[in-house]
Amino acid sequence: MALEAIVIACVFFFRLVITMAAVDRFSLLYREISRSCSFYIEALAIVGAWYTVRKCVSLALDTYSALRLHVIPRLSGNTDLVKKYGKWAVVTGSTDGIGKAYAEELAKRGVNIILVSRNKEKLEAVSRSISETYKVETDFIVADFSKGRELYPAIKEALKDREIGILVNNVGIFYDYTDYFTNLSEDMLWDLIHINIASATMMTHIVLPGMVKKKKGAIVNVSSAVCCHPTPMYTVYGATKSYLDYFSRALYYEYASKGIFVQSLMPSVTTTKLVAFNSVMSKRSFLFPTAEEYASHAVSTLGLSIRTTGYWRHAIQFTLSQFLPEWMWAWSALYLCRVMRKQALTAK
Ligand SMILES: NC(=O)c1ccc[n+]([C@@H]2O[C@H](COP(=O)([O-])OP(=O)(O)OC[C@H]3O[C@@H](n4cnc5c(N)ncnc54)[C@H](OP(=O)(O)O)[C@@H]3O)[C@@H](O)[C@H]2O)c1
């Protein structure tokens, strides 16, 4: 459209120059300009009308899909997840934060839960609490995902006789606080790769063949809203989340025809211990929900959207951030991250 406007402007300019050379009286020149302009104004009006119609249609479609995702499911009652996907769900990183809240939300809808996390005492407590509260079966697997490849044969063995309908690849870590890439230790870099990337890839590799055999199943990969803009001082974390986003979307197109639903879930700030380094982000507010609030909305988007923030308040933030040019996003993120780093270091 910009190209069309430039071409029209150039043609107009050349006609004007030619006309000015051909006439020597102002009234003749004025008449000639008016005649030329009316054609170009009409052409520009058509371009403008076309642009406006396109924008209106896309706004109407976006509004419809937001209502379909965030409002209608909450008004029309819960989907029967057991019937749709299967009896059991596996949730990684499920002893705290979003993973625990998501597991509880699935249990509330009658799904049996297998928790996978690193701390046995916490696993026992959460497992007991879920089975007593929601009257579903629960089990757990102790697994420290930072250990890497050695871990997965035992997980595969533990899951082999279970009919897994839903896999939630939630486990993820962030740094102690927002920081420069060169300040991150080698251990931290490997932990980010093993916990944020390898766990989701390997867990999916273990569980997906069983789902394909049954021709039904859902995989939720918990990415992050930061994956959509290059965010300084979130460098490696953001890159691991971009991996999950890409992985989920590509996997969906590969397996949709086999009855598998894959979702890239991209939360924005949620008040868990992951963001405890910052006093503002760790306090519940309009923009920053608790894990429980977030999970209750996120679960109702399961099966409806392959790529979503999972919560309408996060969707508003996400949509607004999409309007910012990349340099402006990066510039403001860098400023805020520096402030947060300074505060975290001072608090230390
Ligand atoms: N919170 C946010 O603002 C936010 C925003 C966007 C995306 N996310 C993503 O959401 C997911 C959940 O985050 P969260 O905020 O709920 O985090 P969280 O509160 O820190 O909880 C993380 C969970 O993962 C477990 N875990 C950590 N390291 C592990 C390891 N090496 N092996 C096994 N389990 C491990 C933790 O176990 P313990 O109980 O033993 O610590 C805990 O159960 C992450 O993928 C995160 O990147 C979060």
Compact overview of the structure:
It is built from 12 helices and 7 strands. It is an alpha/beta fold. It folds into 2 domains: 2-69; 80-347, Rossmann fold.
Written overview of the protein:
With 348 residues, the protein is an alpha/beta fold. The chain has two domains: 2-69; 80-347, Rossmann fold, CATH 3.40.50.720. The chain is 58% helix and 10% strand. The protein contains twelve helices and seven strands. The protein has helices at residues 2-22, 26-70, 72-75, 81-85, 97-108, 120-134, 152-159, 186-214, 235-255, 291-299, 312-323, 326-347, and strands at 88-92, 112-117, 138-142, 164-169, 217-222, 260-265, 307-308. A seven-stranded parallel β-sheet has the order 3-2-1-4-5-6-7, with helices on both faces. Strand 1, helix 5 (97-108) and strand 2 form a beta-alpha-beta unit. The radius of gyration is 27 Å and the shape is globular. The termini are far apart.
- Strand portion, in percent? 5-15%
- Terminus-to-terminus distance: 53 Å
Radius of gyration: 27 Å
Number of contiguous helices: 12
Count all strands and give the number.
7
What is the H level of CATH, i.e. the homologous superfamily of the largest domain? NAD(P)-binding Rossmann-like Domain
H/E series, N to C? HHHHEHEHEHEHEHEHEHH
Shape: globular
How much helical structure, as a percent, in the residues?
55-70%
What's the arrangement of strands in the largest beta sheet?
A: 3-2-1-4-5-6-7
**Could you give a short account of the major beta sheet?**
7 strands, parallel
InterPro entries: 17-beta-HSD3-like, NAD(P)-bd_dom_sf, SDR_fam
Family: Belongs to the short-chain dehydrogenases/reductases (SDR) family. 17-beta-HSD 3 subfamily.
Main location: mitochondrion
Subcellular location: Mitochondrion
